[in-house]
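Example 9 (inverse folding). The structure is encoded as follows.
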């Protein structure tokens, strides 16, 4: 789910992806396809995408189990979140490592998770204590409590594109730091000219 946070932007529970019980699949509908309405055969794919997102948050971000990222994040994922400056799976892993080093007690709690077609939208609350250096900012030993939002596009069970928005200003104020006076906009790791995949905007 990141200049200061991504909620992928994502407990040591073992999560098993199970197909949701439901009506027989529509042979004309591809699992995970983005249609304007939820149709038969797509509910299992939506639930699988939600479970993948939960696994990344619970196991990778909260517990540091980065192996789960290999299972649910594409190696060349396009990340529009400025915190993932390297991009892709490797960039996500580097972010999580740096994040957990700076905020070892951090916890991301999924408050809402919505799925439609091959996309999920999540509202996530993140808390923690700044006890390590992060992005050049020395430890302040102060706590933060902020809300962030993620949008993730899945293909074949893996995240292939991600957008993240977090209350970075609120976090900086809570930590008592304001680099260069004001938060500075950072570029996305997405390739230049990359067009975001179309989303059924009327659904969110």
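The amino acid assigned to each position is listed next.
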């Amino acid at each position: 789910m990141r200049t200061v946070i991504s909620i992928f932007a994502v407990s040591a529970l073992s999560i098993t992806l199970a197909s949701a019980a439901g009506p027989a699949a529509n042979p004309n509908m591809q699992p995970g396809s983005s249609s304007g309405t939820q149709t038969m055969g797509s509910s299992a794919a939506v639930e699988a995408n939600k479970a993948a997102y939960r696994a990344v948050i619970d196991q990778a971000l909260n517990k540091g189990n980065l192996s789960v990222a290999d299972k649910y994040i594409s190696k060349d994922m396009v990340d529009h979140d400025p915190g993932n400056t390297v991009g892709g799976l490797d960039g996500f892993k580097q972010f999580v490592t740096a994040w957990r080093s700076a905020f070892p007690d951090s916890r991301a709690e999924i408050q809402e998770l919505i799925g439609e077609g091959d996309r999920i939208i999540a509202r996530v609350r993140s808390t923690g204590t700044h006890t390590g250096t992060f992005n050049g900012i020395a430890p302040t030993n102060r706590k933060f409590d902020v809300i962030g939002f993620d949008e993730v596009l899945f293909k074949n069970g893996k995240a292939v594109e991600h957008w993240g928005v977090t209350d970075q200003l609120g976090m900086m104020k809570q930590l008592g730091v304001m680099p260069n006076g004001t938060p500075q906009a950072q570029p996305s790791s997405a390739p230049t000219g990359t067009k975001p995949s179309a989303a059924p905007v009327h659904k969110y």
